[in-house]
């Protein structure tokens, strides 16, 4: 066992946030058992492969996730553009699921699917930046600049 210099806090926050993305979009699409099985199988395969890769090179894995998150930002941007053009009529007047409204604290009047996509895109942009930053750091010695404890220590020192 060794210190992680505040890394686990950020990684757990990101995992929880990604879980909320998944649950929100599953709520929107209400997939059948086949889709649930496909999602579960894909998660099992990815988890196994990514865990092995992380043991070999955490830096490369964080860089990979940073690029993956950049693609997510692009995808959500395109979805927002298509929604604005009227090409996604099912989503045009749909309200975000209650769990999403609560999680992102969406105010009254800003609870549309478009607002939800903006929230999720902002999350993905943050994940991109965090993972590229973590990919630049030495996991064995560098503190996590996103850790609340590290940020508070910086404030006290200045």
Automatic annotation (TrEMBL):
GO terms for cellular component: mitochondrial inner membrane; respiratory chain complex. One of its GO terms (molecular function) is alternative oxidase activity. InterPro entries: AOX (IPR002680), AOX_sf (IPR038659). It holds the Pfam family AOX. Fe cation 2 binds at residues 18, 69, 124, 127. It is found in: Mitochondrion inner membrane. Fe cation 1 binds at residues 18, 21, 124. The keyword Nucleotide-binding does not apply. It is a multi-pass membrane protein. It is an enzyme of class 1 (oxidoreductase). This is Alternative oxidase. It comes from Aspergillus oryzae (Yellow koji mold).
